[in-house]
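User: Reviewer 2 asked us to show a designed sequence for the structure in our supplementary figure. I'm pasting the structure tokens here. Could you produce the per-position amino acids so we can include them in the response letter?
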């Protein structure tokens, strides 16, 4: 039998998982990198015109991706950012309006909100699924209502963040407040993600403590010898039981 890992080791794994999730979000540098193309687009559109703004934002996004490749930083956030800027620029070009640059992000927020809500309905809260997948801790949390409730709360918190982004930015889009729309995109991006991450971390630590207590209170698993002895005793009792004639 293998001995359970010390609590310190488990805490280290939890901290590593938190760092991994932060890296998937791009970290502090991701906040800066994701903000630059938006700021460049708004400034270029105000100082020059829409085509200059479109090409400037795309050029900056490409430059950021190349920079991250050279610096050997995680590429997933950079590629996602480049893809998002490319789609946003294409929509702005097709609509001929600066506010079209933000349309893709607005409707993406609504889709994400729906996905998070659906995961709670089908009893697979996305916060728990993603976290435990990154941490490699299996599906034990899904069998415990206490743990699943915490992940439900965290998932609903993320859904609320995306819902708020959609409602606010959709209203600004309809009112043609392009400048405020850019501000809302930045202010309701990583800062709100950070708040959502705090709720996820709360749910994870809550679940870890719960599962640890359950594991400690559970009876130790039977050895092969104990199982064989129990079956022999049960078989012997069955043989001794008298059979009554009808």
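Assistant: Here is a per-position design you can include in the supplement:
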């Amino acid at each position: 039998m293998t001995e359970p890992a010390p609590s310190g080791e488990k805490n280290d794994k939890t901290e590593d998982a938190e760092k991994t999730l932060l890296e998937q979000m791009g970290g502090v540098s991701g906040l800066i990198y994701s903000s630059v193309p938006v700021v460049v687009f708004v400034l270029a559109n105000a100082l020059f015109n829409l085509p200059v703004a479109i090409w400037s934002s795309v050029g900056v996004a490409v430059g950021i991706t190349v920079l991250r490749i050279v610096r050997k930083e995680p590429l997933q956030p950079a590629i996602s950012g480049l893809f998002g800027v490319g789609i946003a620029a294409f929509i702005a070009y097709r609509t001929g309006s600066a506010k079209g640059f933000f349309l893709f992000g607005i409707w993406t927020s609504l889709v994400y909100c729906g996905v998070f809500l659906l995961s709670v309905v089908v009893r697979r809260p996305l916060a728990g699924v993603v976290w435990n997948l990154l941490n490699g801790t299996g599906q034990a949390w899904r069998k415990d209502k206490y743990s699943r409730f915490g992940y439900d709360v965290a998932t609903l918190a993320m859904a609320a963040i995306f819902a708020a982004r959609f409602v606010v930015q959709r209203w600004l889009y309809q009112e043609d407040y392009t400048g405020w729309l850019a501000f809302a995109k930045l202010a309701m991006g990583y800062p709100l993600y950070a708040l959502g991450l705090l709720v996820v971390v709360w749910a994870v630590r809550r679940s870890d403590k719960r599962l640890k207590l359950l594991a400690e209170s559970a009876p130790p698993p039977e050895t092969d010898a104990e199982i064989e002895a129990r079956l022999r005793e049960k078989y012997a009792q069955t043989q001794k039981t008298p059979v009554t004639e009808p």
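For the response letter, you might also mention the following. The CA atoms of residues 142 and 148 lie 6 Å apart. Residues 145-174 form the longest helix (30 residues).
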